[in-house]
């Protein structure tokens, strides 16, 4: 016994723990990996909306108690949070003022005159985050070439500062015309505000995202300032809590672009982490797909409040700009994710016309679905799964939740009474509506991307992804589903395997020609220096992977497309290769290109990437051992109650297989496998589901 204790102590001493954490609407997920032994520990803890971050300490304590994770041996700590995006969605940010050019005070209100839904007679734009009476015009003007026509009127700045403070502003956004070309005027106004009112925080649009088009640049800066105090306060508390628990690792944050940055930068560059949770999930899924040799994946991340979808092509996540943060577009690079308000906690209701509807309102973590027994009384998607019999056969969330079947039946029964239908049929209708809502959103994603989903494998994750993923795949005509070993913590895993990544941009706005190449090259060299300095500030001492690209268009077009470039083309001045890359990209996106068309280059971009740790999960040799069900249980499968097999995930060995319908239970989720599917466990411990041809 003494020898075993000593051996365990030695193993703990030698551990190199790396922890990824992701906060969702209902749970905070933990994924811990000992890089030396390959041992993986995972955990879910209910969120505490009234005290964000408190659940983090609870999770670290439970990891220590249950898994022997010593906080002092944590060498990497990566955190994704929803504090920023929730602040925008709930409109709980601080009061801001906007200082812009006199005569351009209505830029935010006009918002390019676009409507969220141009085909709806009842559509309206959201109220701006900064009301019109908090927008102040400053006499100042730059010409389009960056030369100064009129210097900023500092007396007007002083009057605007006094008025903004009188109206309760806690921060100021400075966004002036053409600051993408010359940021001097914004810097001068910012310095004057800081001198006059040291208590106000100030962000200029050029320091947040120096890109052409004043609306996009201004709105991105506003989003950054709107969430700044809450995000900064949260991250400061995070660092203090980690220090108090003896965690030596520097806190790192997941970013919207799928990369990482340190917490110190996150306090200022808040806009870069608004989509950190959804991006982390896609990065984690990409890593798992590459491990399994899957090159085309549709991800399905279902949490308590939403379902998120993304495409992984050739093992890589797809990127874009203009992702929506609540009701507002974000114009910085981010992992392309489509979302819909359908999650495990989405509430079902019957409207005034007697029609059953699901979501987008969610029960969240407090009170949660009725079956959680935490005070929820309204039926949710999770309650419908319980009533049908797919859920409720084991504790959930690592033993933190025990399903109360009677409470779920009572909640769904109230809707059944209104509809005049049996309880099971009502529950099935809730599930059918949830799947159909997701089907519509996925079809939109496939159409925009020009892909055939029949060529893709669905990867469901999150607490709710495995519950509904196979049913969605069946409706989409997809043939394969790949469920990872720990689907409930894939977003937390994404933080563990992510690289450092900083995105940088300069607007050059020039025709693509031999004469313009030297200026383009100088812009890229400046971005490269900035990228290397950024990586060094993050503590990265290894090689820098610099990935250049350009936003290009044909002369006369209103908008541009991003075209990846090879560094050798820039170094060698290979304009033909750059032109060819643009034509090919335009052809792929629009099925058209003009080989004789004049090309304009609008922005030069560069991603500076510092590779993360080389991690891997252990693989297990496959055998032909049959899967043995733990027991059989009654499930309403859509038409009738059937007796089907239930399997425990930890008892399934690589190579073992079985047929649906079936239920697979595990510590972080439950798999619902419809009839006709064949299941098999691979050497990576993924559960592979296939439909018959």
UniProtKB/TrEMBL annotation:
Pfam family, one: Hydant_A_N
InterPro entries (alphabetical): ACX-like_C, ATPase_NBD, Hydant_A_N, Hydantoinase_A, Oxoprolinase-like
Acetophenone carboxylase-like C-terminal domain sequence ranges: 520-684
Domain Hydantoinase/oxoprolinase N-terminal: 18-193
All copies of domain Hydantoinase A/oxoprolinase, residue ranges: 217-501
Matches recorded under PANTHER family: 5-OXOPROLINASE RELATED, HYPOTHETICAL 5-OXOPROLINASE (EUROFUNG)-RELATED
Name of the protein: Hydantoinase/oxoprolinase family protein
């Amino acid at each position: 016994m003494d020898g075993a204790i000593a051996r365990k102590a030695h193993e703990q001493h030698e551990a190199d723990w790396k922890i990824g954490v992701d906060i969702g609407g209902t749970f905070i997920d933990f994924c811990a990996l000992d890089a030396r032994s390959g041992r993986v520990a995972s955990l879910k803890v209910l969120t505490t909306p009234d005290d964000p971050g408190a659940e983090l300490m609870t999770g670290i304590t439970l990891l220590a108690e249950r898994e022997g994770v010593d906080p002092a041996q944590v060498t990497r700590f990566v955190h994704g949070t929803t504090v920023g995006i929730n602040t925008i969605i709930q409109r709980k940010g601080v009061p801001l003022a906007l200082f812009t050019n006199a005569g351009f005070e209505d830029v935010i209100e006009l918002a390019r005159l676009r409507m969220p839904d141009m085909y709806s007679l009842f559509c309206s734009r959201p109220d701006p985050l900064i009301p019109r009476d908090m927008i102040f015009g400053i006499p100042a003007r730059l010409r389009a070439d960056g030369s100064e026509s009129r210097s900023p009127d500092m007396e007007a700045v002083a009057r605007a500062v006094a008025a903004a403070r009188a109206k309760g502003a806690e921060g100021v956004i400075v966004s002036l015309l053409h600051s993408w070309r010359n940021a001097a005027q914004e810097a001068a106004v910012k310095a004057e505000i800081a001198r006059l009112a040291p208590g106000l925080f100030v962000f200029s649009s050029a320091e947040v995202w120096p890109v052409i088009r004043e609306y996009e640049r201004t709105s991105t800066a506003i989003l950054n300032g709107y969430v700044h105090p809450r995000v900064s306060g949260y991250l400061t508390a995070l660092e203090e809590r980690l220090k108090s628990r003896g965690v030596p690792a520097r806190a790192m944050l997941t970013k919207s672009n799928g990369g990482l940055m340190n917490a110190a930068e996150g306090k200022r560059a808040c806009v870069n982490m608004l989509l950190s949770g959804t991006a982390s999930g896609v990065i984690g899924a990409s890593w798992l797909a590459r491990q399994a040799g899957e090159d085309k994946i549709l991800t399905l991340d279902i949490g308590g409040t939403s379902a998120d979808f993304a495409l992984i092509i050739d093992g890589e996540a797809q990127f874009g700009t203009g992702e929506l943060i609540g009701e507002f577009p974000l114009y910085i690079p981010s992992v392309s994710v489509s979302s819909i308000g359908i999650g495990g906690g989405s509430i079902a209701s019957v409207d005034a016309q007697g029609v059953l509807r699901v979501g987008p309102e969610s029960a969240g973590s407090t009170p949660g679905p009725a079956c959680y027994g935490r005070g929820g009384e309204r039926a949710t998607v999770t309650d419908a799964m319980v009533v049908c019999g797919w859920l409720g056969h084991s504790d959930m969330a690592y033993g933190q939740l025990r399903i109360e079947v009677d409470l779920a039946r009572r909640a769904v029964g109230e809707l059944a009474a209104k509809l005049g239908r049996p309880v099971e049929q009502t529950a099935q209708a809730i599930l059918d509506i949830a799947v159909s809502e997701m089907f519509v959103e996925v079809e939109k994603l496939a159409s925009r991307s020009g892909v055939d989903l029949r060529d893709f494998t669905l990867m469901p994750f999150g607490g709710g992804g495995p519950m509904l993923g196979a049913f969605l795949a069946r409706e989409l005509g997809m043939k394969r589903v790949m469920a990872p070993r720990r689907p409930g913590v894939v977003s937390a895993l994404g933080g563990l395997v992510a690289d450092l990544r900083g995105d940088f941009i300069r607007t050059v706005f020039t025709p693509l020609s031999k004469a313009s190449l030297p200026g383009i090259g100088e812009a890229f060299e400046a971005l490269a220096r900035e990228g290397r300095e950024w990586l060094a500030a993050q503590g990265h001492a290894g090689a820098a992977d610099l990935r250049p690209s350009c936003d290009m268009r044909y002369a006369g077009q209103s908008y541009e497309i991003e075209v990846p470039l090879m560094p050798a083309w820039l170094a060698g001045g290979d304009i033909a290769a750059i032109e060819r890359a643009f034509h090919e990209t335009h052809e792929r996106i629009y099925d058209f290109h003009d080989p004789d068309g004049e090309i304009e280059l609008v922005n030069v971009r560069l991603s500076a990437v510092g590779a993360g740790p080389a991690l891997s999960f252990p693989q297990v040799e496959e055998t032909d051992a049959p899967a043995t069900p733990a027991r059989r249980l009654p499930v309403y499968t859509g038409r009738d109650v059937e007796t089907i097999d239930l399997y425990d995930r930890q008892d399934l060995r690589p190579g073992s297989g079985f047929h649906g319908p079936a239920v697979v239970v595990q510590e972080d989720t439950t798999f619902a496998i419809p009839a006709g599917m064949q299941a098999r466990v691979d050497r990576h411990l993924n559960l592979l589901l296939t439909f018959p041809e």
